Amino acid sequence: MDSNSSLIQKHILHAGKEYKEIKDGSKVHFHFVTQLCDSDNTILDDSRKLGKPMQLVLGKKFKLEVWETLVKHMSIGEISKFVCDKSWPENVGILGIEFYFPSQYVDQTELEKHDQVSAGKYTIGLGQAKMGFCSDLEDINSICLTVVSNLMKRYELDYAQIELLQVESPEEYEQESWQLTEAEKLASIPKLKEDGNTLYKAGNIQGALDKYSTALGYLEQLMLKEKPNDEDWKKLNDLKIPIQAIDVLKKFLVCS
Known about the structure:
7 helices, Aryl-hydrocarbon-interacting protein-like 1, Serine Threonine Protein Phosphatase 5, Tetratricopeptide repeat, Chitinase A, domain 3, alpha+beta, six-stranded antiparallel β-sheet, peptidyl-prolyl cis-trans isomerase activity, hydroxymethylglutaryl-CoA synthase activity, 8 strands, 3 domains, two-stranded antiparallel sheet
């Protein structure tokens, strides 16, 4: 497999039907069962009980070394059991509890004043001192992956049974915001605008608005990194204004 192959034993339970190269940026879909190497083969986790397979983007997009190493050399449809030596990977696993709290928050005392409610409604009634919220650089996917990453580092994986279901190359699926570099976000804006126009002409108003909103979100993220009224900021703003105008107009038409 790789430099750690001597620490992994692979047993093919069901041969796959097709091998597809899994390169950095590929998204893999697979079911897994993780168990302890004890006399009872205690099951730690089973993706089928969760109702859907695990998805993982390989390489620099979001690296989970254990899973990446195991699935990279599997064929689609293959079911294999892997036994991993305890010395590798070190301090990695999936059993435990992990919490994630956004770094930004609203002071509930201030929110009581802003909402013009009685003092203590939130701080005493709800028992809240602060309420966390995410920036537009985070979403439910990045939060969940952060938690999974922390769990993988904290606990030890003994062995896993994995069924590889699907491999999507980077160009075969629509990448999410957290996967894109700044250059990729900028390059995607004209296509998002074009796709929005196409959807609008086809009568898919909500789909069009979603495309425009995504493009505007990318532009706003990029503009935050520039000094207002500098040359690069103005170029981004020039891209933003027509998309924003279209977005507002079509939202108005929907409401009316």
